[in-house]
Amino acid sequence: MGNCLSSPSTYISKKVVQLLPIETVFKLPAPLPVWPTGEGFANGSINLGGLEVCQVSNFTKIWATREGGLDNLGVTFFEPSQIPDGFLMLGCYNQPSSKSQFGWVLAGKDDAGDILQTPVDYTLVWSSESLKIKQNGNGYIWAPVPPEGYKAVGLMVTSSPEKPPLDKIRVVRSDFTEECEKDTWIWGDDKAAQSSKVNIYALRPKTRGSQAHGVCVGTFMTQVDGAASALSLSCLKNKQFSLSHMPNMDQINTIIQTYSPLVYLHPDEPFLPSSVSWFFNNGALLYKRGEESNPVRIDPTGSNLPQGGSNDGMYWLDLPTDGAAKGKVKKGDLQSSNAYFHIKPMLGATFTDISVWVFYPFNGAARAKVKFINIPLGKIGEHVGDWEHMTLRVSNFNGELWRVYYSEHSGGSWLNASEVEFVSGKNKIVAYSSLHGHAFYAKPGLVLQGNNDIGIRNDTSKSKIMMDTGVRFEMVSAEYLGSVVVEPPWLNFNRPWGPKINYDTREELKTVEKLLPGNLKTQFEKMVNSLPNEVFGEEGPLGPKMKNNWNGDEV
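== Vacuolar protein sorting-associated protein 62 ==
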């Protein structure tokens, strides 16, 4: 994990000193590199077209609860401090006290003279006076009331019932704002959002993607008794949408060398990754509907693959027909394996998303856990051509890693950089590839896809089988750089990288169910019916460019 520095405030009881995770400030394990020369990347601030913004990560604690929320450890509210000269506060920050302090809010500098204004009043959104849980005094959350033509992008928090000074915060001219939505749950007065009367959520732009202009401010919203009383809050908008703060090629290479994942494969993994060219060179075949008896060998770069079009069922890829060659290709070839990088702007080009794609020629069969019984699922889950990925979200303000997305079958999880594992002494993140299915996870162990101790097993472990994605990699797409990055032909093959399965899934399941006693059989059937189609591998998987996250956000 990363390094943590002690924060000044601790909760002292009469018996023990309880140091909560929030009392430590997360720092990456190693210093940031000296970034190669460029235009605007990692220069400290970004101009949104007349409104200059910077990230502020120094905070002064305002108020906290010591119960409710994640792990029932409460929430801590902060006010940004040490704001650079000329920049003004746009809102307060908070985070679960169960996590080490790691966050930021934006501050704004008005280069035009009329983009930022003081509010005309405050509305009390919520107070903790009636809260029946442990807290450090009382807290009060205020919504700025903007003048006509302006919108608030953040809330104020105080520890007294008096309204904050009007000049404490600024609201933003409407044409520099966009609609936002609630993101992750931060805190509630109970242990879960569903049972809480008051809930705190992070905010994010409602429209997100490589061409979207919405900018995350780092602030939060408050929901009381199910009513989103603060959803009048907005996100910022990169009105200019200049890409001058995106990294250039030299800077991208430095980012990759700094953060690129080290992937641990399971020690029993029989189906390893390979490069795409190795897959093609070792006999992968292109099939065309109506001409199935005459498949075509694929050129090393995929230059003879159909380009563009849609997933119309006309073409697909498959393994070699020769038994020995088929067995060889299914096993993959770790020595040839490449990581394939896709670079794109995100959150109004204030962040860079670096998607790290890994190709496996074959995905192995799934395995189930039914209480104390582990059961192989026959051929279920097997398919040709398995694409998996992670995404690194890097700040264009300073080049610091903010979040990591781990793809897990049909979904995935975002984790803050403060929550992931790093290679000792480095800023390289660690990921674990699950046995047979190759889903990526942040920690080793068993992840059960199901509930009540019944589900599909996803086993991960440290091993001597590793893939360093920063050693062998290829930049396959960075559209904002124009012709600097040339996309390989195989990237624009928009059809399946494997055939439809040729076995009866339900028959396979019946074979498994025969091994279970009656009560477990019923529970197993319910679990299977709740799983996404991807687990069963009934359709051949599509390539990276056909995924929704190629131009959009992850989840």
